[in-house]
Design brief:
Blueprint: H1 11-24, H2 30-33, E1 45-51, H3 54-60, H4 63-70, E2 73-79, H5 81-93, E3 101-104, H6 106-116, H7 123-128, H8 141-146, E4 148-149, E5 152-153, E6 156-157, E7 163-168, H9 169-175, H10 183-196, H11 213-222, E8 228-229, E9 232-233, H12 238-254, H13 264-272, E10 278-282, H14 286-290, E11 299-302, E12 319-322, H15 329-339, H16 342-349, H17 364-372, H18 374-389, H19 401-416, H20 422-438
Parallel strand pairs: 1-2, 1-3
Antiparallel strand pairs: 3-12, 4-5, 6-12, 7-10, 7-11, 8-9
Helix pairs in contact: 12-19, 17-18, 19-20
Signal peptide: 1-30
Protein name: Sugar ABC transporter substrate-binding protein
Keywords: Cell membrane, Lipoprotein, Membrane, Palmitate, Periplasm, Signal
Length: 440
């Protein structure tokens, strides 16, 4: 029967056992020679709270491999993103040990969770409890930095991602239009596509309030705007108002019906089924968009075109974190280490999960996978741009970042639905957001 061992009970005996194994084993592997034993937690159970997105799906395809390697039972609770967040908040507020490992977006809730003391500090684990080939320094320094708050390293990067513009090359050709070269050209292109293909959505992007800032932020930054200036909300700046207007107008005029309810799942379904000509959605959705093969030969991929402020794509990544309230963080770390190891990252890469490790780009299987389809090379080229030019500022860089996203989404949706003018929407949002900022 699997058990969960307290982080205190039996720790000395377990460490001693691992050390003894390292000294006496005649056929030890390189990792065991350094005192690391994948079977040290055999019989334990690790609970994993997962977001039902392509990253978790790709990892869990190999769940049996992890359990066979370690003897640990992985208990998985998997939900859609919003439900996963609600479940996590409930567990963490109760200081419950029901969750050992969870997926986190440092760019979203990192400051908030770190301030609440909900993350186990992973720094000691990365320095003392890894296999010889783990190579922590191979992970993206930018993503590691983004997951570190006041010296506490909160989560190991799983991927690198950001929104990209997927577009139908065959439809563009039929309609005699070229991909937009600037943000200002997107509306002109969408207008021609709508006239040419009235049965298709010309431009689609996120409209759901809490999800919308992920894509809207690229419009804001490319147009030269910023969320904050001199310690106050800056949505009513000329650049902020232009970004609000452009994003809302595109969705209102050229987006799908009911777009205020759209997040990644709806966008991916719409594009994959051939019902949208342009879709601004996560690079992480690439495998789902290509699922079934219908879009393999008629899709182009590019970063959002630059604006007056240049090109500053959103570039973030999911990470694996260990709950501060876990009874067995050592066993939980075994799962984190396995999922973020060079070997697993290479496997995830060929499932379309952009790797946060530099070494994976030289992996033979991954390079072969890229060469098999030209669209995969376009995707990787766009990912490289995200890595080189990206910013992780999605919403306000404050502890209440998740709440700030609601106000950003509300501002856009109120314009889109005709409930407020741009001036009214940004003024209300700035007032609400300034109150949040003052709480820091």
């Amino acid at each position: 029967m699997s058990t969960k061992i307290s982080r205190h009970a039996g720790l000395g005996a377990r460490v001693a056992g691992v050390a003894l194994l390292a000294i006496t084993s005649l056929v030890a592997t390189a990792s065991a020679q350094q005192g690391f034993d994948w079977k040290a937690h055999k019989g334990d159970t690790v609970s994993f709270l997962a977001n039902n997105n392509p990253v978790a799906t790709a990892i869990l395809k190999h769940q049996d491999e992890f359990e066979k390697l370690t003897g640990i039972t992985l208990k998985v609770d998997k939900y859609q993103e919003q439900q996963m967040r609600q479940r996590l908040l409930t567990v963490m507020n109760a200081h419950s040990d029901e969750v050992d490992v969870f997926m986190t977006l440092p760019s979203r809730e990192g400051k908030q969770f770190a301030a609440a003391g909900w993350y186990e500090d992973l720094t000691p684990y990365t320095k003392q409890k890894v296999t010889s080939d783990y190579d922590f320094n191979d992970l993206s320094p930018a993503l590691v930095k983004a997951a570190t708050f006041d010296g506490v390293f909160t989560g190991v990067p799983l991927n690198i991602e950001g929104p990209l513009l997927y577009y139908r090359t065959d439809v563009f050709k039929d309609c005699g239009v070229s991909p937009p070269e600037s943000i200002d050209q997107i509306g002109d292109v969408a207008k021609k596509l709508k006239s040419c293909k009235s049965n298709m959505t010309a431009f689609a992007s996120r409209g759901l309030k809490p999800a919308l800032p992920y894509t809207f932020s690229v419009f804001l930054h490319n147009m030269g705007g910023s969320y904050m200036k001199d310690g106050k909300s800056n949505l009513c700046s000329p650049e902020g108002k232009k970004a609000l207007s452009a994003y809302a107008d595109l969705l209102k005029t050229y987006g799908p019906r009911g777009v205020v309810n759209y997040s990644f799942y709806q966008l991916t379904t719409l594009y994959r089924s051939g019902r949208s000509a342009m879709s601004f959605e996560s690079s992480n959705e690439f495998p789902s968009i290509m699922e079934g093969g219908a879009r393999l030969k008629d899709t182009g991929i590019m970063p959002l075109p630059k604006g007056a402020g240049g090109s500053h794509p959103t570039s973030i990544g999911w990470a694996l974190a260990i709950s501060k309230f876990s009874d067995d963080p050592d066993a939980a770390w075994y799962f984190v280490q396995w999922a973020t190891s060079p070997q697993m990252q290479a496997k995830l890469a060929v499932d379309g999960i952009a790797p946060p490790r530099k070494s994976v780009s030289q992996n033979a299987d991954y390079r072969k996978w890229l060469q098999q389809q030209p669209i995969r090379q376009d995707w990787q080229k766009a990912i490289d741009h995200l890595a080189a030019e990206g910013t992780s500022e999605v919403g306000y860089p404050i502890v209440q970042n998740p709440e700030s996203r609601e106000y950003i989404g509300q501002a856009v949706d109120s314009i889109l639905l005709g409930d407020a003018s741009v001036d009214q929407a940004c003024k209300q949002a700035d007032q609400q957001l300034d109150q949040l900022i003052q709480q820091q």
